[in-house]
Design brief:
The chain is mainly α. The chain is built from seven helices and three strands; from the N terminus they run E-E-H-H-H-H-E-H-H-H.
Length: 197
């Protein structure tokens, strides 16, 4: 893999061969699937939209606050990857953690989906030169982190990653997955270094 390079405008640039571009796209999609899709609110009732007024906005906000207060706090996701992507803020206090999750989980999901979608939108399907603004590069960094986290949880990667990989038999199907995990780490490190320059 070629290294990311800092550009004069504060962004980054890298050239990705078709295989690596396809691999990145293939790895980001399961994160989006895990985070789930949510419907977009309709245009009606939005300030500035036909039929929308400030009173409509006040009413909608009041209804949203009332619904949030009445809603049962979401529990920790059953899927271990989602539990890591959407962690509890207060591990020692389940009630406080549930209350915090009730108000933050939706926005955290949306942010993570946005990062993943930015990567997909800025990555040419057939590879080639990728040019990212500083903001897009930071979104890539966050999306790559989520992909690595997903992989790490599924593979049960520990701090002894190298030893785990070395302990696998050459024909073990996990070898390829561990190598992809290592490659993702190299991509992420290259991007971080380019942004720090």
């Amino acid at each position: 893999m070629q290294m990311f390079r800092r550009t004069r405008d504060g962004g980054v640039s890298v050239w990705l061969p078709p295989g690596e571009a396809t691999l990145l796209r293939t790895l980001v999609i399961p994160v989006l699937d895990l985070l789930g899709e949510t419907g977009r609110p309709g245009e009606a009732g939005r300030p500035g939209a036909p039929g929308g007024t400030a009173d409509d906005l006040d009413r909608l906000l009041a209804e949203a606050v009332e619904a949030a207060e009445a809603a049962e706090a979401p529990s920790i996701p059953d899927d271990p990857v989602l539990a890591r992507l959407l962690p509890d803020a207060y591990q020692e206090d389940p009630e406080a953690a549930g209350e915090f999750r009730k108000y933050t989980e939706s926005s955290l999901r949306e942010a993570k989906k946005y990062f993943a979608q930015t990567l997909l939108d800025t990555l040419p399907p057939s590879g080639g030169r990728v040019r990212l603004t500083g903001d897009q590069a930071r979104d890539w960094m966050r999306a790559l982190n989520d992909v690595r986290l997903m992989f790490g949880v599924r593979l049960e990667v520990t701090e002894d990653f190298e030893e785990q990989l070395a302990a696998l038999a050459p024909d073990d199907p996990k070898v390829a997955a561990f190598e992809v995990y290592g490659w993702l780490g190299a991509v992420q490190e290259s991007l971080v270094r380019a942004l720090d320059r």
